[in-house]
Amino acid sequence: MRDTLELLAPARDAEVGIEAVNHGADAVYIGGPAFGARDKAGNSLADIERLVRHAHRWHARIFVTLNTILRDDELEDARRLAWDVWRAGADALIVQDMGLLELDLPPIQLHASTQTDIRTPEKARFLQDAGFSQLVLARELTLAEIRAVAAAAPRATLEFFVHGALCVAYSGQCWISHAHTGRSANRGSCSQECRLPYTVTDAEGRIVAHDKHVLSLKDNDQGANLHALADAGVRSFKIEGRYKDMGTVKNVTAHYRQLLDRVLEDRPALRAAASGRCRYGFTPDPARSFNRGATDYFVNGRQSDIGAFDTPKHAGVEVGHVTRVGRDHFDVSLHEAGAALNNGDALTWWDLQGELQGVPVNVATQLGGRAWRVMPNATIEALKDLRRDAVISRNRDMAWDRLLEKKSAERLIAVDLRWSATADGFALELVDADGHRARATVVQPHQPPKDAARNEATLRENLARLGGTIFEARRVELAAPWFVPASVANALRREAVAALDAARAAALKPLPRAEPLEPPAPYPEDTLSYLANVHNAQAAAFYARHGVKLVEAAYESHERTDEVSLMITRHCVRWSLSLCPKQAKGVIGVQGTVRAEPLTLVSGGDRLTLRFDCKPCEMHVVGRIRKSVLREAKAQPMSFYRTRPAARA
């Protein structure tokens, strides 16, 4: 992987994964039947095997997520699942729980999930030395921090999220969902408490922000930073989205395929991790898929505009403005000549309080030029603050959706063909762009052609006819001037293509499993708190084997019922609201009066405290687990690791 760049796309199911490969993914990550960090995106072993067969034709890889923390009573099922997905042909497992490394696993490559919270060179070096081949870095890292990790873990491939939704917390460092609902983000069932509106109050109870989504972030977009990320050491460029629909995965994968191809053109020492070049039947545009606005987060340092505080919804792409509001319709002037509205589109606007409003289009009628009349799927009275000159955006475009429902890409591998004569017939040799070779021969009398020029043109056309395969002819060399019936040429071409497919399959080797160091590498710390997410005895044994003396149980064990950090994040509400002491430095009359005192978040009956650790520039969201969650957990007998023995009933 040192000289390759990998575009890694998500798949909710096998069909989405197949289209991700068709649209340029070098690898796809997908959930198996259980234990994936998206509990509603599981897939059968048969579907994984079908996706593997498709992907491997281009030498693209399939990674299966087995990245929840596991209870003791789940370990055996997880071990069997690891063997099952390996037998199905999967190339790697994405893992969070270190207890799996204590089990009898198949010889499959292991990748450290972003849930393992890889923020430091020391953590990255340890995971490399423990046997992980690929490390999914924390999304919060800067370019300098990525370079430091690359230097510390030179044997591991670095993977980094370049697009999609952002968890506000360091991955694996959020327990708000579990504390409030019993649904653990570490076990694939996040309730997304971070997307709720909160009222923010200061230490004196004054309202700082009212009903704002202050923990909700814009979506990640590293499109402008790919060259810099590659130079920093990233080799796998990951798109978020195992819940995303087919159209979104097609669109975003195609977009980043084009961007990465430009990086490869500018970096001749690097190459794509899989084969083939893509052609698209549409112009990729991530802005047209669901998004909350774009940010490159911390890659280029702390930014002030990373929050999607007004709404966690998709506002859409601005298309025009309202010119008139009638009794049962409203008229819109579109910005672009030739643009159109469609029946079934969804339009949005911002009301006078700054809240996003929207309505589906029942009927759209062109009035002439850029003017359109919209009959909404609601009464005009129900459309809050829809008014003349209101800016209109579109967050569902039916014409776009219909375009992406069709076949929208083909991925082909260039191949050179050489036709020659043998002693008793002819031979066709194929060499693909990766250097794989295949040869087919046929016994056929040598006959001079009646029309040499026409014979050559026909033969060349028949040999280059590779439709229905994954290949396209780059060059056709004819070294035999004899007449050949079209049926013979076509049969030999099909035989040679089948042989080339077989040669490519034979050349694809399993990804190697990294060997852990012996004696075991020491963990960077000798004490672990609940932050380490240790939920089974095998994980505790793993850390003990690596020199850790005290291993506290995971938050999901419910040993911690006091106020604790339920989220640790690099996002800072004070910074985003221009209340950070560092921002006040040098401001006359302000310096020294702004302090990093705690703030309070209020949503419904829940109160959370924001505490600010200014030295590492981090924010802790502090709270306690609901009693209802504890009562419900007690009613469900489960077996998991505890720091101390459970109290007897």
Automatic annotation (TrEMBL):
Domain Peptidase U32 collagenase: 394-504
Pfam families: DUF3656 (PF12392), Peptidase_U32 (PF01136)
Database matches in PROSITE patterns: PEPTIDASE_U32
Entries under InterPro entries matching the protein: Pept_U32_collagenase, Peptidase_U32, RNA/ubiquinone_mod_enzymes
Matches recorded under PANTHER family: 23S RRNA 5-HYDROXYCYTIDINE C2501 SYNTHASE, PEPTIDASE U32 FAMILY
Protein name: Collagenase-like protease
Taxonomic source organism: Rubrivivax gelatinosus (Rhodocyclus gelatinosus)
